[in-house]
Amino acid sequence: MTATKELVGGGNKVVQKVTVPWTSDASGNYTEVLNLFGFLLKAVTIPSGGGTAPTALYDITLVQNGVDNVGGILADRAAATTELVNGIVKNGSDISQIPPFLAGDHTFTVANAGNAKAGTCILYLVESL
Prior knowledge:
By secondary structure, the protein is an all-beta fold. It has strands at residues 4-10, 13-23, 30-47, 59-64, 67-68, 83-86, 89-91, 94-96, 101-111, 118-126.
């Protein structure tokens, strides 16, 4: 599957909407390289329904240079409910009020989803705050 990008909004703020449909392999994982640029405002995870719903508490990461650049905010996703996560990263008890900035190639990975399970992740990015 391949991610799609589109610009939404207008006026003085344009948001890039990146839609990533995914289907896990036999090991329960999916990987795709995404070229991203901007501050992550929010992410929406949408599990498939029925027999292709992912296993509860599956994880999504956006890794660059060995680091999850979204700080684990896409871990432990629900199997049957659409979830929205605002782009605020926690570092222990400290909460950063600036969304993570993503620039360049990132490895989008779904892990622990179960064999041949599916869903969609939508990322909303803006170039400046």
